[in-house]
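Sequence design from tokenized structure. All designs in this work follow the same two-part layout: the structure record, then the generated sequence. An example of the structure record is given first.
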């Protein structure tokens, strides 16, 4: 243990002498002095712990002191906004009759309809056309900067994926158009071999 703690030869010798004599080991050991370490006596001695005695009688406050505080004062009544009882009756009648709260549902539907009207639907096909154009412009910029080789394969792969998605959308549109045309003309389509 002494070897691990990296003590000097003097410190090791001093500790071994203390052990042989049966003395207590010093708290601090001076690294190089050959004189006995002086025990530092604190200027003040710590106070001896004494238990404080609890009194046998509980410390209760008199009633006058308790009543003098705010503990017994009541808050004043502040009326709140009243609810419309006729609307409540109508609402409960609807719930008991149909099992649903019609008023809330109608309000929610109106809110959803307003949101749908505000957001114009973007055509996915147009979005894909714009994305393909952006990628072509990006690739042209990179080639102008001399970085075309680094991005060419990635961008061309993305463009081919977008083109494939556009073909799928175009095929669905043409099928929907064909179906709507055959519904309009019940005799069938002359060009359709199955009809």
């Amino acid at each position: 243990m002494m070897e691990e703690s990296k003590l000097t030869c003097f410190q090791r010798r001093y500790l071994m002498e203390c052990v042989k004599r049966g003395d207590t080991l010093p708290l601090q050991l001076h690294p190089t002095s050959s004189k006995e370490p002086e025990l530092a006596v604190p200027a003040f001695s710590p106070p001896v712990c004494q238990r404080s005695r609890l009194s046998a009688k509980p410390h209760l406050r008199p009633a006058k002191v308790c009543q003098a505080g705010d503990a017994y004062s009541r808050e004043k009544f502040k009326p709140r906004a009243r609810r419309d009882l006729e609307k409540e009756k109508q609402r409960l009648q609807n719930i008991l009759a149909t099992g649903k709260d019609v008023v809330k549902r109608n309000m929610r539907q109106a809110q959803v309809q307003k949101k749908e009207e505000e957001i114009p639907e973007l055509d996915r096909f147009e979005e894909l056309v714009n994305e393909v154009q952006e990628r072509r412009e990006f690739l042209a910029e990179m080639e102008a900067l001399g970085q075309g080789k680094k991005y060419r394969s990635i961008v061309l792969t993305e463009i081919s994926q977008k083109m494939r998605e556009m073909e799928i959308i175009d095929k669905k549109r043409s099928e929907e158009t064909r179906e709507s045309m055959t519904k309009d003309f019940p005799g069938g389509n002359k060009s359709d071999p199955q009809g």
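Residues 124-181 form one domain. We note this feature because it recurs in several other targets discussed in the main text.
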